[in-house]
Amino acid sequence: MAAIDRLHNADVASTLVQDPTAIAALFSDDALNLQFPGQPVVGSKAMKEAYQRFRAAYPDFQVLKYVPKIKDVRVADGRALEVISIESTLKSSAKDNPVTVETNAMRLLKRQPDGSWKFALVGLK
């Protein structure tokens, strides 16, 4: 669980600074992200490109608060399934007021050969 907690901490840190490289590093090489509109984003390289495109389209976007609340975690055979709710405060542009949202999500984590964990599947519930 300590290694999973490290992934959670890195998720919060990288989300708050909105660094595409740091965010993409949280995903396994074969990860699937269902949070973007359109087709699923597959793989950490595609994740980085998707987040870079998002940052280019919304350069003033800020995450002011990001609090994932883990509701359930099931670990088996090098995988972990999480059910979470995420409380976020977001600001789309410099002129917009912050908006607070709560989102429910499911994440599948995959243990890496070095014992660390990365996201293998992320999707809204």
What does this structure look like?
This protein is an alpha+beta fold. The protein contains 3 helices and 6 strands. It has one domain (2-124): Nuclear Transport Factor 2, Chain: A (Roll). The chain has helices spanning 2-17, 20-24, 44-57, and strands at residues 27-33, 41-42, 62-76, 79-91, 99-111, 117-124. The longest helix has 16 residues, at 2-17.
Spell out the blueprint of helices and strands:
Elements: H1 2-17, H2 20-24, E1 27-33, E2 41-42, H3 44-57, E3 62-76, E4 79-91, E5 99-111, E6 117-124
Parallel strand pairs: 1-6
Antiparallel strand pairs: 1-2, 3-4, 4-5, 5-6
Which descriptor suits the 3D outline? globular
Tell me the span between the first and last alpha carbons: 23 Å
Helix content: 25-40%
CATH class: Alpha Beta
CATH topology: Nuclear Transport Factor 2, Chain: A
Low-pLDDT parts are none
The counted number of beta strands is 6
